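queue> pop job 88
queue> type: inverse folding (structure -> sequence)
queue> payload:
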């Protein structure tokens, strides 16, 4: 039996159900994740590149130094393979229940673990990842702008990092009012191109410079405990560098789905292209500041939109606020202001990449999707 179109008259369905359906559709058409479903497969490609190739890639040179060239290379390659597999699982599970799409990461968690337990397990980790990334990008964008200023105007008086973070945040006070993923596709494309560009500049410059004399490739720490700590922190940096799973379902939700032509086809095509780019980008090191600024602008928005969706869903569905531009204007500006404020107060936030990578990105990227799949298969067998 097909899904009834809201508003159609059906003698077997009470009028209040039709009204509820209409209200639900109005809200879904307003919320950022479900408001547009006409994306193409290449949207998936550059959204995923923008999400995965972020501030984490800037810490990979330090991660490699702490992991060692042998273990570091093995870990990078294994992470690429494992995360590609877990991302494939997420794409497949998006429409695993006939007639239903899991448009948000926590919805899949609720299906696997139950309505309440799924929220308690998934939402805290997802928010730590997404809000943490946006704060890191506030600091990274501000520092990159500061470096550009110092390079361009060497004789100028030094300006505090605080002001550069505020300048970077001013861009997001505008961009954050773009309603959904499709509306930021141009920003995301520019960000993906920039990530590829600054990585290419870095590794090509290294190749041109060649092997330098008197370079030591051993571990930096002088004690065993220090070496172990740095190694574990580097693992977190690698996990952070392969982030992106937290927003994959939200990205797939923008792709149309029809009987016989599910969204997983174009989504997977985009993921494969993205991972080819990721393989090309993540293995070298990178540093070009202007490209970093443009890239983190796009990445900030990619991670902010799912947070906007959570906030707006809570306000509209639970607290019964009326969907409006005013509500969206206030909530999104407050979010940007909050991440800017934290970035200004804690400019060392970027140093916590290893913590966020190990605490939240590793679970949500490497093995939570496998847990989803195991629970879903168990449920299916019980039925």
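queue> result:
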């Amino acid at each position: 039996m097909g899904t009834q179109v809201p508003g159609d008259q059906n003698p077997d369905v009470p009028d209040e159900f039709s009204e509820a359906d209409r209200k639900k559709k109005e809200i879904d058409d307003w919320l950022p994740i479900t408001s547009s479903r006409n994306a193409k497969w290449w949207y998936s490609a550059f959204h995923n590149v923008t999400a995965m190739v972020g501030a984490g890639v800037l810490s990979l040179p330090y991660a490699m130094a702490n992991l060692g060239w042998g273990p570091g290379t093995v870990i990078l390659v294994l992470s690429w393979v494992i995360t590609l597999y877990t991302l494939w699982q997420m794409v497949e599970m998006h429409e695993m229940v006939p007639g239903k799409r899991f448009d948000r990461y926590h919805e899949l968690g609720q299906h696997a673990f139950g309505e309440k337990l799924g929220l308690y397990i998934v939402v805290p980790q997802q928010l730590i990842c997404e809000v943490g990334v946006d704060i890191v990008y506030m600091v990274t964008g501000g520092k990159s702008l500061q470096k550009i200023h110092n390079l361009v105007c060497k004789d100028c008086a030094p300006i505090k990092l605080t002001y550069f973070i505020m300048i970077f945040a001013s861009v997001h006070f505008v961009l954050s009012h773009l309603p959904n993923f499709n509306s930021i596709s141009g920003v995301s494309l520019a960000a993906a191109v920039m990530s590829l560009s600054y990585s290419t500049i870095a590794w090509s410059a290294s190749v041109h410079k060649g092997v330098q004399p008197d370079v030591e490739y051993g571990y930096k720490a002088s004690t065993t405990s220090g070496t172990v700590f740095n190694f574990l922190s580097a693992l977190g940096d690698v996990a952070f560098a392969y982030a992106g799973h937290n927003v994959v379902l939200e990205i797939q939700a923008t792709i149309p789905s029809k009987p016989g032509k599910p969204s997983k086809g174009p989504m997977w095509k985009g993921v494969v292209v993205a991972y080819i780019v990721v393989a090309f980008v993540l293995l070298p090191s990178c540093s070009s500041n202007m490209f970093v600024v443009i890239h983190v602008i796009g990445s900030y928005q990619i991670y902010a939109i799912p947070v906007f969706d959570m906030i707006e869903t809570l306000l509209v569905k639970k607290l019964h606020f009326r969907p409006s531009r005013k509500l969206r204007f206030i909530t999104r500006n407050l979010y940007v202001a909050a991440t800017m404020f934290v970035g200004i107060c804690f400019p060392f936030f970027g140093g916590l990449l290893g913590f966020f990578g190990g605490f939240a990105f590793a679970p949500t990227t490497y093995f939570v999707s496998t847990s989803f799949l195991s629970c879903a298969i168990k449920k299916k067998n019980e039925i």
